[in-house]
Structures are given as C-alpha cells and as structure tokens.
Specification:
elongated, 405 residues, Rossmann fold, three-stranded antiparallel β-sheet, alpha/beta, 2 domains
Length: 405
C-alpha cells in the first residue's frame, strides 16, 4: 500500500454517496478503509440499478454502477451492529483504527453504544466524523437528509435552470459529493491536529451546510447587494459573454473572462466593432447590457464551425469548448492522457475487470494507487477479523452462525 495516508486505518460505517465519497478518497490517498456492511444486504446502493456490472456470461451481477462509483480501495466486513456482539466487534476494531466515518441519522449509533460520547474516553485519539443531512444540532437535525433536498433547501436549485423554467437540480448528486469532500478536508486537518496534540476529535458535517458553503459567488452576490440571484440558464451572473452559443454545425461554449479576451474574440469573429462599442467595452458594461449583446452574438457565431471556434480561440487564449456527451468525455485525448478512466481486476465480471473513474489528484511522490476494486459484500470478513482481532475460522464460523457477521 502506498499514498500519503499509508498507515492510517478508517472504520467506514457509511453508505449511499456522501459518506462513501469521503471514505473512497481516503482510501485513494493510501488509508486502509474497512467498510462495515449489513450481513447479507450491504450498502443500499448495490441494488441501485440498472445498470449493473455484467458477469462473464453477460448477465447482471449484484453490483450496480452506482455502488461501484464510490467504493474502491476498501475492504468489506459484515457486522450486525444491532447485536451486542456486533457492537463489541466494532469497539475491538476501533482499537486498531484512527478514523471512524459514519452517516447514520442523528443519534442512531448512540442507541448501539457507538456514538462519539460513548467512545471518546476509551479511544482518545479517535477522529470521529459524522455526515448527516442537517448536522447534529438545530431544529432539522432529526430529519433524514438527501442530496435533492439539500440542493433545494440550500438555494442551488433556485439559480439552476432556464430563466422561465422550473428550478433544476444538478445532474449528479453534487451536494453529497461536495459534503464528502469537505469531510475529507476536515479529517485531514484533524489528523494534523492529532499529530501535534495527540488528541482526536469529533467532526460534524452536514449536506445543507456544505451546499450553502459552495453557493460561493452567488451567495455573496446576495449578501453584498441584497438582490436575489435569478436563474440564468448557462449564463454567468458576473461575466459576459459566458454562454452556450450556436455555431455552423451545432453549439460551443464561450467563456470570456476579461476585456482583453473579449477584444480578441471579437477580432477573430470578424466583429471588432463590438469591442469598441461603449455598451460592451468593459465587463461591467457587458453585464449590464447582457440581453442586447446576447441578441447580437448568434448571427456572429454561426459563421464558423465548432472546431473553428474551439481551436481558433484556444490559439488566442480565449476560453471555449465543445459540450461533450459522456462518451465523448472518456474518448477525449486530454482525458485519456490524464488517466481519468482506470481499469482494475474484478473476478467474476466480464473480462475479469471493471472500468472506474480515476482520481483527479496527481502526486509527484505518492501517486494514487488503484489497489482494490469495490468489494463484494463481506468479501474481506475473514481476512480483517483474522488480521486485526486474531479470530480463527472456528471463531468466525460461530459469529456467522449467530448472525453477527
């Protein structure tokens, strides 16, 4: 095992998306992640399909694409934490772990004696991270939280979509994913603190809080001006032109970031007069007069093909791109060069392998190691219990017979 977190061990009591996103990233960075799953059932998302991974005969397996997306570099151990023996196993495992990550509803693990307050005295170096919909405090804390709700309540949907359309969520569970990322940042900071102080701590991360945090400029636009941001479709609230525009053979993205770029765009487009027009000469003026400028641009941009715009503007340092479908994304030479599609061994799957999305972090000294494919339910139970707790085959068989693992 390699990576900057090599030597750290994570007990992962998470499922669905936010928690597994967090623990997968920790695993990618080198931590030994032990995923705790319900005996016989496992993570709910294993059944969230189709699509499912195909076996050697082309039939569906029990592993959905959704599950596969956030569960590599983990080992799966089944434990029924509702049973006293299961709770005891968790505590014994914690003696060998640095970090616990969980995303149960508020108070759920405390019912089993596995809340932070139940564990902190016995494990003073433990870093315990809870990921919930609304956090551990406040009037909404007891509620179940989901990505869709966070995008709605956190304001993101109010600024996403066409101006005359309904509010729209982002096409993936971005509130879950970003919450998982914030959780990783917090855990790494807590690891650093523990290195200096010797003390662990509790981390409380919420989907709603995270969603509000990444309102970023639109949130500050409101706090600064008092004016409610509105849905702008593909437009940018503070930069113009920044939009999907028609071209001779489809569409392309134009994302002008400053006045010099706008002038170069206008000259390349054969419309230098636009750059000299007082209504458009500065970004502030273009923002104020966006409707008039956007009414003029389609006649200009239809004069060239998508390739002519994207390649020509790239040579001039003016940001532009095509709008790729997902198949085009993974076929793109830049994406391939950066290793954003990886293939790992997966016994039982068609071809004995599975394709996954790569990690975007590129280290010079401790590269990400795709050492483990997403595990099948409980596939590492015997190995982990033997390795960490010195339990032999007879001990494990007895636990299985009692439904503990």
């Amino acid at each position: 095992m390699s990576g900057p977190l090599n030597g750290l061990r994570v007990l992962d009591l998470t499922r669905i998306l936010a928690g597994p996103t967090c623990s997968q990233l920790l695993g990618d960075l080198g931590a030994d992640v032990i995923k705790i799953e319900r005996p016989g059932e496992g993570d709910d998302t294993r059944k969230w399909g189709p699509p499912f991974l195909k076996d050697q005969d082309g039939a569906d397996t029990t592993e959905s694409a959704y599950y596969l997306c956030t569960n590599r570099n983990k080992r799966s151990l089944t434990v029924d934490i509702s049973k006293p023996e299961g709770q005891d196993l968790i505590k014994r495992l914690l003696a060998h772990c640095d970090i616990l990550v969980e995303n149960f509803k508020v108070g759920s693990l405390a019912k089993f004696g596995l809340g932070y307050d139940d564990l902190k005295d016995s494990f003073p170096r433990l870093i315990y991270c809870s990921i919930t919909g609304f956090g551990q405090t406040g009037p909404y804390a007891p509620r179940a939280g989901y990505d869709f709700l966070a995008q709605g309540m956190g304001g993101m949907m109010s600024i996403t979509g066409e101006p005359d359309g309904e509010p729209v969520k982002v096409g993936v569970g971005i509130a879950d994913v970003m919450c998982g990322m914030y959780a990783v940042s917090a855990i790494l900071a807590a690891v650093h603190h523990r290195e200096r102080s010797g003390a662990g701590q509790y981390i409380d991360v919420a989907l709603l809080d995270s969603q509000i945090a990444w309102l970023i400029n639109e949130g500050l636009n409101y706090l600064t001006s008092g004016q409610l941001p509105r849905r702008l479709g593909n437009e940018h609230p503070n930069i113009v032109p920044y939009k999907v525009l028609p071209c001779a053979d489809g569409h392309f993205i134009l994302a002008v970031g400053n006045d010099a770029q706008f002038r170069r765009f206008c000259e390349f487009a054969g419309a230098p007069e636009l750059a000299d027009d007082p209504a458009y000469v500065t970004n502030a003026q273009r923002v104020r007069n966006r409707e008039a400028l956007y009414a003029l641009l389609p006649d200009v941009t239809r004069r060239k093909t998508q390739a002519e715009w994207v390649d020509g503007l790239a040579d001039l340092g003016v940001p532009s791109s095509p709008v790729h479908t997902i198949d085009q994304v993974f076929a793109d030479p830049q994406v391939q060069h950066r290793g954003m599609q990886v293939t790992v061994p997966y016994p039982g799957a068609a071809g004995g392998k599975v394709d996954l999305i790569g990690n975007p972090i590129k280290f010079s000294e401790t590269p990400v190691d795709y050492r483990l494919a997403p595990p099948k339910v409980g596939q590492d139970t015997e190995t982990v219990l033997d390795e960490l707790l010195d339990l032999g085959p007879d001990d494990i068989a007895a636990l299985r017979a009692r439904g503990v693992v």
